[in-house]
Amino acid sequence: MIFRTIDIVMVGALMVGVTWTFKVKNETERALARVAELEAQIEAEREAIDLLRADWSLLTSPDRLEKLVERHSEDLKLEQTDPARILSFEDLPIKRPLPVPRTLDEAMIGEPDTNSITGGIGQ
Predict the structure, then answer these.
(1) Rounded CA gap, 29 and 32, in Å?
(2) Between the CA atoms of 23, 24, 25 and 31, what dihedral angle is there, to the nearest 10 degrees?
(3) In this structure, are residues 76 and 69 in contact, taking their beta carbons and an 8 Å threshold?
């Protein structure tokens, strides 16, 4: 049985198609495994965040803080804040921005040092 050129080309094309299909299948499986890994990692991070939020709620509960203040009041010497000392945002002084120099000469402070040596090592 003699193979014609067209038969050899078709077998070659079939081999290329099989190889390409196998490659795409493996890449897809790796991508799906990576997605599953990332989803598991995201879920673990969400659980950690929920746990941290619960811990934060417990640590900052007013009843707990009040008990701690009572227990350590002699060491800390805390006093209640006088409401008159609390300011609103509007009561704060306005900080003026520094003027921006318009030219390089205005930006320079003092005279340039003409005795300095610039350049590479050994000059």
Answers:
(1) 5
(2) 110
(3) yes
Secondary-structure percent of the chain, ordered helix, strand, coil, rounded to 5: 65, 0, 35
CA distances from 8 to 11, 13, 21, 95 (A): 5, 9, 20, 84
End-to-end CA distance of the chain: 85
**The two three-digit tokens of residue 35, written as one number:** 């997605």
**pTM greater than 0.70:** no
The full set of domain ranges for the chain reads 1-74
Q: pLDDT by residue (tens digit) across 57-69? A: 999 999 998 898 8
